[in-house]
Amino acid sequence: MADKKNYGMVIDTRVCVACSACVYACKSENSVPEGYCRDWVVQETNGTFPKLSMENRSERCQHCAKAPCVIYCPTGASHYSEDGTVQINRYRCTGCKACLAACPYDARYVHPKGFADKCSLCKHRLDKGLETACASVCPTTSLNLVDFNDPEEKALKMMNGKEVYRQKKHAGTNPSLYWISARNKPGA
Amino acid sequence: MTQTTTEIISTKMNPNVIPHLHIWEWHIPLYLFLGGLAGGLLVITAVMIVIKRHFGIGPRDEGEGCPCLAVRVGSALAPILLGIGMLFLFLDLANKFYVWAFYTTIQPTSPMSAGSWILIAFFPMAILQAMLVNKQFLRNMNIGIVNKLIDWTENRLTLVALLNAHIGIGIGIYTGILLSFFYARPLWSSSILGMLFLISGISSAAALMLLFAPNHEKPIYSKIDANALWIEMVVVGLFILGGITGPANTSGAMMHLIAGDYQMAGMSYMLWFWGGFVALGLLIPMFLEFLEAVGVHIRFPLVAPVLVLMGGLLLRFLIVFAGQTYHTFM
Question: What is the pTM of this model?
Fold first, then answer.
């Protein structure tokens, strides 16, 4: 199928300023309960003083192509969607919490109403042709929604020639989030 | 040489995920213990029935095909204990109204899905065995449908027991596999965990039967217990060795359990593991059972089985808790 989507994100950590706009956009868009978050901001500092380097990034569910949460879910509540994302059917979720234990990224939580919850990559917006809430408010265009089946290969153009990584790739989960490393910054 | 440092600041704040996973509390260890105990009871009683009926070995039976008292009580306890365990499992569910979802699908890659079906399969066969070994008692109660069921199946007790020995082993292993498939939690991600929980379930079940067996039946359960404890010691040793010789994730998680100062109920994992589980739950009862076997009768014969049962329960608590407090697969 030519027009089948395969959504993911390319996150350019070079321009992320850790402003948390993505976190609050998500909370408001998805009515995330107070005290919980579907995405969060990480600031990682590496090196030996005074030679330090810092990377800011906005993290969330990796929408793995081989997702441990889907593999372990006993009821099929966690499932792959046709657009390449991982979704939760809350009307089949028993709240057994196996998916929380299975996720190597600790991306999930138990919603106060009892079902497992996490980033849906704003599926309700994707279905309308919109981008995710987090990407739509990102003031530095660090967050980019991409379709890996896109013939214009926006994703490839962005990552071409740069140091790009995926988190815990060796876990074998085949995550759909790609990170342009802050080491690409001049002087890093 | 100056150390390269990494400092990570995160705004993630999800309760029971941060600072470490805290999704399963006392319900799950208790369920795993009761499940292992029920599986162990089914294995031991089924094997006792088979070797008595097929080879004529075992304690004097009660006549008319009714086995000895410990087997009769043990057979009845197996489904009861599993039922209580499943109640705890249910209480742990965060979305209890959707519990039916387990039974509208089979997810081949999910041990929990397989387990939820095995748990259901356990009951008819275990209850049938409990009825057949207690048939004299049940016939006196003279309930129509129960009488009919016993009439149909009483000549097949050996077959029922043979099947149950397998189901019991399946349940015992399943209680460990439930955790060991989570490779994101390095302590649980050990193939030997299924064997460890199975043999621990069998040793606990032998200890429980030793508690309620009449005096002339006690020696056989004492011997089963001593042998199960010995095998369990070997498996615990392999579990530890497999952990500390493994890659960074695995060895770190194992050290977190066996040498960790993380506190559980005011005492470090290390003390609980070596002092509580290995010394009090394995070595001392094994020594006491050994003394019993060579004819040195101790003053308090109940000490050993009670210690074994407490050790089995403690093992489940330690594994479930320490698996969660260690960081995820890196």
Answer: 0.94
- The number of C-beta contacts closer than 8 angstroms across A and B is 156
Average pLDDT, integer, range B166-193: 95
Those residues whose C-beta lies under 8 Å from the C-beta of residue A19, and which sit 6 or more positions away, are: A41, A139
For residue B112, the distance in angstroms to the closest alpha carbon of chain A comes to 5
Q: Computed from CA positions of residues B281, B287, B292, B298, in that sequence, does the dihedral angle turn out positive or negative?
A: negative
Provide the strand spans (E) within B118-224. none
Q: Quick check: B11 and A37 CB within 8 A?
A: yes
- Under an 8 A CB cutoff, do A95 and B24 touch? no
DSSP structural state of residue B2? P
Q: Is the peptide bond before A112 cis (omega within 30 degrees of 0)?
A: no
ipTM metric: 0.92
What gap in Å lies between CA B279 and CA B287, rounded to an integer?
A: 10
Q: Which structural domains are found in chain A, ordered by start? A: 7-184 (3.30.70.20)
Q: Which CATH number fits domain B27-325: 3.30.413.10, 1.10.8.60, 1.20.1630.10, 3.40.50.300?
A: 1.20.1630.10
Residues of chain B with C-beta less than 8 angstroms from the C-beta of A68:
182-184
Residue B12, pLDDT score? 93
How far is the C-alpha of B250 from the C-alpha of B184, rounded, in Å?
11
Q: How far is CA A17 from the centre of its chain?
A: 17
The amino acid occupying position B76 is A
